[in-house]
């Protein structure tokens, strides 16, 4: 028997409502409800309008389930936040940012300002430098020009005339070239244009719900910047902070985007259970694989702070927060699917709803897991390229610190996504089966024909 037939045999067909005879249907036909009598907005799945109000019994059940979790999340956020503590300062002096525009750029020998080259020859082993004239556009010496010498290395950016650059000012003479160093390009304008294009696309397609999604996105970044980052920098356990921060983001983003309804509450429950599973699996296998989390970025952070930080906890925190976005999509889709199945066939019990919803979830799991794997693989592409040319063999490459971190991150997150489908589906089936389904306008029209 083919694999798909076996899956269908396990779940069983969806039981349908028996068709009414024309005579009986004519006798039982009731007048369509007037505008005043028509039931208020019915839910139409993921992103298709507001959900129907939940019954009192369902509301009480969800309040008892989610209320303590929401209260614990808020209390934990207040406890973990570094109230009254000064923001940690970096141990490295990076200088004050200043902006400028390169007017001229020419490659040649590495000569300090004021030096001249004697003779026409240059040793073959001497590396060239780029001499640039920069006009400052802000700061105490705005409008003045300085000359800087930038070594040309394979790992350094290539600057040219008319480039807008960011410089680091060390606090010396504002008009002295020795007080500045080129750090990077200015990217504010293209990033702002891309953000505006993204916002317009979301609002045009999603309208009010798209606007709510943008608001949820902004609040998610607020939680990350104003709670998660300060708490971790203050020395709190990164994994605990990430779990609390993910809880705040989960409640704010889901309810703001999809509205306060039973469907959204079930999605929150499914997301919470899946996140807990991801955190547990990540902690177990990160410890079993002896992952320290001390990659280049974490080592630079520790050097900047001047004190230690839990590298493994930081790794686990990144796994939890990184998986949150994909989990939101999976859980919301599953709950909306179960609710639509319930509205289409009110005679289905919770087991039949679960089996039908699970069929839908199987198709969703493959694309969601592939999305997560490709996202992590893209982020780790430089590490993978470097490992591939090291010539130490595939086993050593996969077991290296940087690659093993991405493997644990990907597989633990994928297990959580796979588990989110049956967990969310069974929760949605149990709660949706207890709802009283009111006939939708489309069903009224079909019965009158």
| Average pLDDT score | 80
What is the chain-wise order of helices and strands? HHHEEEEEHHHHHHHHHH
Give the DSSP E fraction (strand runs of 2 or more residues).
Answer: 5-15%
Regions with little confidence, pLDDT below 50 for 5+ residues: 1-14, 17-49, 442-449
Biggest β-sheet strands, sense, barrel: 5 strands, antiparallel
What's the quaternary structure here?
A: single chain
Please tally the β strands and state the result: 5
**Can you count the helices?**
13
Strand order of the largest sheet: 3-2-1-4-5
Helix-strand category: alpha+beta
Q: Determine the N-to-C terminus distance.
A: 42 Å
Shape: elongated
Radius of gyration: 29 Å
Give the % helix: 55-70%
Overview of the molecule:
The protein is α+β, with helices and mostly antiparallel strands and 449 residues long. It contains 13 helices and 5 strands. A 5-stranded antiparallel β-sheet has the order 3-2-1-4-5, with no helix packed on it. β2 (129-136) and β3 (145-151) form a beta hairpin. The radius of gyration is 29 Å and the shape is elongated.
Q: What structural keywords apply?
A:
449 residues, disordered C terminus, 59% helix, 13 helices
Break the fold down into its secondary structure elements and pairings.
Layout lengths: L2 H9 L10 H7 L27 H25 L15 E13 L20 E8 L8 E7 L12 E6 L10 E6 L2 H46 L4 H21 L3 H27 L7 H10 L5 H34 L5 H30 L1 H8 L5 H6 L1 H32 L8 H8 L1
Antiparallel strand pairs: 1-2, 1-4, 2-3, 4-5
Helix pairs in contact: 3-5, 3-6, 4-5, 5-6, 5-8, 6-8, 6-12, 8-9, 8-12, 9-12
């Amino acid at each position: 028997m083919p694999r798909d037939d076996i899956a269908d045999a396990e779940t069983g067909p969806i039981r349908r409502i028996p068709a009414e005879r024309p005579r009986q249907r004519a006798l039982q036909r009731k007048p369509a409800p007037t505008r005043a009598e028509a039931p208020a907005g019915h839910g139409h799945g993921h992103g298709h309008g507001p959900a129907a109000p939940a019954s009192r019994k369902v509301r009480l059940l969800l309040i008892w389930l989610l209320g303590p979790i929401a209260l614990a999340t808020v209390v934990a956020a207040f406890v973990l936040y570094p109230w009254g503590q000064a923001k940690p300062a970096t141990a490295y002096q990076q200088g004050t940012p200043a902006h400028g525009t390169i007017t001229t750029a020419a490659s040649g020998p590495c000569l300090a300002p004021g030096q001249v080259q004697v003779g026409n020859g240059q040793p073959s082993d001497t590396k060239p430098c780029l001499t640039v004239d920069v006009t400052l556009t802000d700061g105490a010496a705005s409008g003045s020009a300085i000359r800087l010498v930038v070594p040309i290395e394979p790992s350094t950016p290539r600057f040219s005339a008319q480039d807008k650059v960011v410089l680091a000012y060390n606090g010396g003479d504002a008009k002295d070239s020795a007080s500045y160093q080129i750090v990077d390009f200015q990217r504010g304008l293209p990033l702002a244009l891309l953000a505006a294009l993204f916002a317009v696309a979301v609002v045009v397609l999603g309208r009010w719900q798209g606007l709510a999604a943008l608001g949820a996105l902004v609040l998610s970044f607020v939680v990350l910047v104003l709670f998660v980052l300060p708490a971790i920098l203050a020395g709190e356990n990164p994994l605990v902070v990430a779990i609390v921060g993910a809880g705040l983001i989960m409640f704010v983003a889901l309810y703001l985007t999809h509205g306060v309804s039973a469907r959204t509450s079930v999605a929150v429950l499914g997301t919470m259970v899946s996140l807990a599973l991801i955190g547990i699996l990540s902690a177990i296998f990160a410890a079993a694989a002896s992952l320290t989390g001390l990659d280049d970025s974490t080592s630079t952070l520790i050097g900047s702070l001047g004190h230690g930080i839990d590298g493994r906890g930081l790794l686990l925190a990144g796994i939890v927060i990184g998986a949150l976005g994909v989990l939101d999509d999976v859980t919301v889709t599953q709950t909306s699917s179960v609710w639509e199945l319930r509205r289409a066939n009110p005679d289905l019990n919770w087991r039949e709803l679960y089996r039908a919803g699970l069929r839908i979830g199987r198709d969703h799991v493959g694309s969601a897991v592939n999305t997560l794997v490709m996202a992590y693989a893209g982020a780790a592409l430089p590490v993978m390229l470097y490992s591939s040319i090291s010539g130490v063999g595939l086993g050593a490459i996969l077991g290296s610190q940087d690659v093993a971190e991405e493997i644990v991150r990907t597989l633990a997150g994928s297990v959580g996504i796979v588990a989110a489908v049956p967990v969310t589906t069974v929760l949605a089936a149990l709660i949706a089966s207890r709802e009283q389904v009111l006939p939708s306008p489309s069903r009224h029209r079909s019965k009158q024909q």
